[in-house]
Amino acid sequence: MNISIVSQKLASLKSPLAVVFVTEERARLGAFRQLIRRSFGEASVLPLSHGDFNGKELEASIALLPTSAKVKRLLYVGLGNAKTVDPERFRKAAAVAVKKTKSLKIASAHFLMLSHILSDRVAAYALAEGALLSDYSFDKYKTKKENGAKLETLTFLTDNETARGKIEPLVRNAETVANAVCRTRDLANAPGSEIYPESLASVVKSSAEQFGYSVKILSEQEIRDAKMGGVIAVAAGSARPPRFMVLQYGKQYGAPVVLVGKGVTFDSGGISIKPSAGMSEMKMDMSGAAAVVGTFEAIAQLRQKVHLIGLIPAVENMPGGKAFKPGDIITHRNGKTSEVDNTDAEGRLILADALSYAEQFKPAVVIDLATLTGACVVALGHIAAGMMGNDEATMQKLKRSGDRVFERVWQLPMYEEYARFIKSDVADVKNVGGRWAGTITAAHFLRNFIGTYKWVHLDIAGTAMLEEPGEYTPRGGSGFGVRLLVDFLQNRK
Ligand code: BES
Ligand code: ZN
Ligand code: ZN
C-alpha cells in the first residue's frame, strides 16, 4: 500500500471511497453534518440522520452516493468519545477502514484529514500506522493470493497546503516504521527451512546494505574462539552451524544502546524435546532477533542520532546425535558455568554469551528481547511483555513508550528470593528454576551474565507470536518490539 498526501478542495475530489473519521460528539453536531452535506449532497449524511451511525468506537457505516457523484461512497468510521480518543483508537479506526475498503475490492481510497475535523498530527501518524500495519499478510507461500483485494493507494486529503506539509513527514516516518514491522513479521513467520542461522545472517547482511548499517558475522569457529559456550552447546544437535551477528549503526553518537535478540531459528526443545502439538510455532523463536533487525532498519532510515549495537546469537535447537544433553555443564563467555537441566531452556544459554559479549561496548544500556518462557504467556497472555532488569529509570521509559505505541510491557519483580531456584550443585547456575515463576527465574539466570551496565530484559514469548489477530496485528508474528524500541530510542533523553 502506498500513502500519498494531497491538499485539495473537497468539491473537486474524485474517489471510489472517502473515509470520514468521526467522534460521537461530532456525529451529533449540526455543523459537521452541514459541511459533509454541502460537499457530498443529501445522501452523504443519511447514516447520521437515520441513526445508522453514531460515531461509536470502531463503528463503521457506508453512505452510497448517487452514481453521478464524483465521490462514490463515504465510509464513516467511529472514534468514540472525543475526550478519551488516543492514538490507539486512530490505529484501530484506520485498520477498520482499510479492511472495509479491501472487502469492497476498492483499490484506492481517501482519508479525509480536514482542518476542522481531523488536523491533529498525532492522528495522522497513528492513522498511517494503523492502515499500513493492518495491510499485512504472510502470503509469500500462497500460490493463489487470497481474494485478490488489494488497496493500492491510500490518499490523505488535507484542505490546505500547510496541513499537507505538516502531515507529510509524519506519514513518511510512519511508513518507514511500519515497513520495518512488517519485515520483522515476515522474518518471524518464515519457516525454519528458510530461516536458519546462516540464512538469517545473509538476510541481515542484505538488510544492512539496503538500509545503511553495518554487520559483522561470526562463524562457528569464531564463536568458539570467543568462548561462547552456550551458543556452541545449543547449536551442537543441529546440522546447521550457529552464527553470531554484531550490528552497528551511528558509531559517532557516543555510548551505544545495545539490543540483544534471541535468535533460535527453530526450537524443537532439543533432547528435552517439546510435545509435537504446537511445535511449529517455534519457527518464531527468533522473534527477538527479528525485532532487533527491524529496529535497525527503522532507526537507520530515520537517521536517528543514536549509537546502536545489535547482538544476535543464532542457533537451531535440535536433538541430533551430537546434541547437548541434560547434565552437561557449559562454560560461558564470562567464565561462569551453567548446568543444563533441560535443553528446552536454550534461549537463556545463548543470551548468556551475548550479554557477556555486550560488556566490551561500554553500553549506555542493554536491552534484550527474547521469546524466553511459556510461563510469561501464562502470566501476561499475548497482551504485554514481561519486563525485568536492574535500572528502574530505563524500565519506566520503556513502560511509557510501550503505553504510547501500544506494545505494552509489564514489570515483574526480581526479588532476591527467586535466585535460589536456579542454584546448582555442580555449576554456578542451573538453566531451569522449577515449576514456579519461570519468567523471573529465567531473568535471574540472565543476570549472572550481564556486565556492569544497565540492563532490561523483555520476555516477548506472548506478544511476539499471536494466536488471534487484532485490528492491525495478524495471527502469527506480530513484529512486537520494533515500535516500542523506536519510540524509546526517539524519546530516551
Ligand atoms: N521458546 C521457548 C519459550 C516459548 C514458549 C516461547 C511458548 C513462546 C511460546 C523456550 O525456549 C522454552 O522452551 N522455555 C521453556 C523453559 C522451561 C524448560 C524452563 C518453557 O517455557 O517451557
Ligand atoms: Zn526452548
Ligand atoms: Zn526457545
Can you summarize this structure?
The chain is α/β, with parallel strands linked by helices and 493 residues long.
Q: What can you tell me about this protein's structure?
A:
By secondary structure, the chain is α/β, with parallel strands linked by helices. 37% of the residues lie in helices and 21% in strands. The protein contains 16 helices and 20 strands. It has helices at 24-28, 30-40, 46-49, 87-103, 115-118, 121-134, 161-189, 197-211, 220-225, 229-235, 287-302, 347-358, 374-380, 392-405, 438-447, 482-490; strands at residues 2-7, 18-23, 60-64, 73-80, 108-113, 153-158, 214-218, 243-249, 257-261, 263-267, 308-317, 329-331, 337-339, 365-370, 384-389, 408-411, 429-430, 455-459, 465-466, 476-477. Strands 7, 8, 9, 10, 11, 14, 15, 16 and 18 form a 9-stranded mixed beta sheet that branches. Strands 1-6-5-2-4-3 form a 6-stranded mixed beta sheet. A 3-stranded mixed beta sheet has the order 12-13-17. The model has no long low-confidence stretch (mean pLDDT 96). The structure holds ligand BES and zinc ion (2 copies). One zinc ion is lined by residues 264, 267, 285, 346-347.
Give descriptors for this structure.
single chain; 493 residues; alpha/beta; nine-stranded mixed β-sheet; six-stranded mixed β-sheet; 16 helices; 20 strands; binds ligand BES; binds zinc ion
Write the layout of secondary structure elements.
Layout: E1 2-7, E2 18-23, H1 24-28, H2 30-40, H3 46-49, E3 60-64, E4 73-80, H4 87-103, E5 108-113, H5 115-118, H6 121-134, E6 153-158, H7 161-189, H8 197-211, E7 214-218, H9 220-225, H10 229-235, E8 243-249, E9 257-261, E10 263-267, H11 287-302, E11 308-317, E12 329-331, E13 337-339, H12 347-358, E14 365-370, H13 374-380, E15 384-389, H14 392-405, E16 408-411, E17 429-430, H15 438-447, E18 455-459, E19 465-466, E20 476-477, H16 482-490
Parallel strand pairs: 1-6, 2-4, 2-5, 5-6, 9-11, 9-14, 10-11, 13-17, 14-18, 15-16
Antiparallel strand pairs: 3-4, 7-8, 8-11, 12-13, 15-18, 19-20
Bound molecules: ligand BES and zinc ion (2 copies).
